[in-house]
Predict the structure.
Amino acid sequence: MLLRRAVAVELEVARGLNRLLYSVETMYLNIVREVVAYAVKHNITNPTQLHRLFYSKYRQEYPSLNSQLVIQAIRQSSEIAKSFIEKRRRGLVGKSYPEVKAVSIRFVETTWNYEQFTSSIAPVRITISLLGGRREVWLRLHKRFWLYWWRVLTGEAELAGTLIVKRRLNRWYAVFIFELKPREEKPQSVVSFDINENTVAVGRVDIETTVNKVAKWNKQYLTPQLYTIKTDFGRLARRYGRIRDAITEGLKPLYALPNGKYVNIADTREFRKRVKHLRERGRKIGRIRHVANELTKTPAIIITEELGENPQESMINGIGRDELRHRIKQTPFKALEKAVEDKALERGSRIFHVSAYRNSRACPMHFVKL
């Protein structure tokens, strides 16, 4: 099993190169929009079928665009259409067709200097195929890139052949994808953790000091180190819930109906426009990564509870308070578990899931009723 890590590096783009990238992005976006609209309308998501239908057309329409970019645009359209049709089937979208606002340009091995880049010890520039031929672009490399590039040089990782170029806030970025091999390290401790609403409870036992002769005369090494990591997922959900309620109350007068009722504010454009600037998702992701990093600092045997597919649904059974149900639903149990599993593989730890059935009723050491 290979782990994937994406690293975005800013490109040093002059005015002429900026125009070329904008032109390629415009052509690429037009292809994706047209193919997606056709695929959704006719329920065709097979990339091979879409390639037969559109490849010749766009090669004639955009003769200066590299043929591989046309192929990648059609494949990307297939992925977008497939995802939209699946969400529409599950009732998660209200539109009849997807709205493609931005795209990431995919360059395969033959459209950038992949072999030359991977054979270099310290690569600082790339060459990509744009309109009229290849252009050289310098990279503004940073610490995270060199961290993974060192793993490539030592054979612990490989650089994927696909390079992604995207624009954010009028800046261009190249996204490199590294495929990491899971490490195999000797465990130094045993760690168990339990996810709660506002904290993660952690118990840690050091293997070397526990099995050593020191433990015979100093019993403190037999006692696990117990501590909590503060996450405040529940408080975060409560806070952003109040913010969304305030936005809803402020917009109600604008969407009043003649009979005295209101349009569903959450479905309005103005509500979505204001809510998208909230940082709830970003804050959650940051705290999840912090916990995963803390639990996997050293190679360890990590033990956690088997949560199942949707743990929140079983937790809210029998709870009548809407606010408490909302806080439980907003606690990212599975996302945190997945982040720990992913980071554990990268750093040489092993994770095991145990059933929670009757674990709170019997002593795990003496197997007697508590």
Remarks:
- The two ends are 41 Å apart (CA to CA).
- Residues 188 and 298 are 7 Å apart (CA to CA).
